[in-house]
Amino acid sequence: MNILKVFSSWLRKLYDWTIHWAKTPKAPYALFGIAFIESSFFPIPPDVLLIAIVVADRKSWFRSAFICTAGSVLGALLGYTIGWSLYAAVGKFIVDTYHLQDVMELVGRKYQENAFMTVFTAAFTPIPYKVITIAAGLFKVSLFTLVIASIIGRAGRFFLVAGSLRVFGKKISDSIEKYFDIFSLIFVVLLAGGFLLLKYAFK
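The structure assignment produced for this chain is given below.
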């Protein structure tokens, strides 16, 4: 319980800092950058900054969702390149870091069954997208399939998040302020659950 309180306090400071920083002119560039690197190795999903930016300025919801989608899909190309030609040098280290060695083989089988749905599922859900993009390159999935499935999945996810904040932004931001500890716990569960889902969803 004490660990949760410490983490919640840290997340509270980070959230306040992000909300303040999200109002600056550099916020869109940071959103693009985080979305880009999350698709290949960064552990924190770009939704965190996307939410902060739209909460700070609800009129920016469409532009922010577009930037987040563009950064993520372009980042998927980096992940694909790592899997295609740099797996031994870079990709294996990333996979080992997240302890997902066994998952790569399972993802490879899923790609043989239905590559489009495999990419789309990871792009739209909390499943760590980076593993999917790296595996796509490793198992030589069609680049066209990766890009189209990523665009649909990532756009569906980010526009849903940003659009919901545009419509219900005030209520949502008030709820976050009021029940921040609960939202902190949910965030941790989703982050950890994404990796567990990746391990068991593809069996």
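Interim note for the steering committee: Residues 2-201 form one domain. The two ends are 33 Å apart (CA to CA).
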